[in-house]
Design a protein that fits this description.
six-stranded mixed β-sheet, 2 domains, 11 strands, alpha/beta, globular, Nucleotidyltransferase, domain 5, five-stranded mixed β-sheet, 293 residues, single chain, 11 helices
């Protein structure tokens, strides 16, 4: 059976179509990303044009999922919709355009699904506690647990790459003072967090996946600092060409890097870039559901 997830995030609307790979993980059938900034002003309403664009994007991605043979398509939404004053209006518009109900995830559900997607798609199953950091556009989740027992600790913060970039990183490339301001906010937010010390820590989310092209598969402190130095010296258009990353993603990467630096310090471990995250967790949950009678 094939299942699909359409994920309405703060920065992007993303589609994943996948099927079981026979070894307890997933085989990707199709993946699609559409940059569609919902804005980062918390608790305010989403504008009518934004609502219409989201509904159109989700309808298009739902049709693509069905063309790829998806038996189930689950649409989820995270921080930007969760905090919007008119979330119900957006959900109704998506339903009218695509026929799909939108599941607005709580921060706890988002953490649990991201952990499942990150851990179940690892090439090798690690022993002991696993830490997962999911940096989104509007929020970030830190999660710890084991493959056998699931999530044992989690924390969610209303600060993602889109929010942090909007608050601090207004220049292209960002200035040293702007980056310092972003780092100070992250340090103040995460400085008192007491998390389990995992054997392995995994970074997931669009920013983490894009960073693989800049620094490779491991986000050590030196690699994170080096990437931040590079992205702080190149205009977004130049960095996009150099690394083959969408220019809209490049504009958010410095903020994402700062958040990943903070998460790595909380976990006390270098971060590995994961192969799966929230969308994979949603698809795995759908595949585990019994078929309708």
């Amino acid at each position: 059976m094939r299942c699909a997830c359409v994920d309405i995030g703060t920065n992007t609307t993303r589609l994943l179509v996948a099927e079981p790979d026979g070894a307890g993980s997933l085989r990707e059938v199709a993946a699609l990303r559409h940059f569609l900034r919902l804005g980062t002003r918390r608790a305010g309403p989403l504008g009518p044009e934004t609502v219409a664009r989201v509904a159109e994007a989700v309808a298009a991605q739902t049709r693509i999922a069905q063309r790829h043979g998806a038996d189930r398509v689950r649409v989820v939404a995270t921080a930007a919709v969760r905090s919007a004053a008119n979330a119900d209006e957006l959900c109704a518009a998506v339903r009218a355009a695509s026929g799909a109900e939108v599941d607005v995830l709580t921060d706890a559900e988002e953490a649990r699904l991201a952990f499942a997607g990150a851990t179940r798609t690892l090439a090798e199953a690690p022993a002991g506690v696993v830490g997962v950091v999911d940096v989104g556009g509007g929020s970030s989740e830190l999660v710890a647990g084991t493959l056998a027992g699931g999530v044992t600790w989690w924390a969610s913060f209303p600060l993602g790459s889109g929010v942090l970039a909007e608050r601090h990183l207004r220049s292209d490339p960002p200035t040293a003072a702007e980056l310092a301001g972003a780092q100070e906010e992250v340090a103040a937010l995460l400085g008192e967090v007491e998390a389990p010390r995992p054997a392995v820590a995994i970074a997931v989310g669009g920013g983490a996946a894009s960073l693989a092209r800049v620094v490779g598969p491991e986000l050590s402190p030196a690699a994170l600092a080096g990437a931040l130095e590079i992205l702080g010296s190149l205009p977004a258009s130049d960095a996009a060409r150099r690394f083959g990353v969408h220019v809209e993603r490049v504009r958010l990467l410095p903020a994402g890097l700062v958040l990943l630096q903070g998460a790595a310090e909380v976990f006390g471990r270098p971060l590995c870039i994961g192969r799966g995250g929230l969308r994979e967790g949603v698809v795995l949950a759908e595949l585990a559901e019994p078929p309708p009678e």
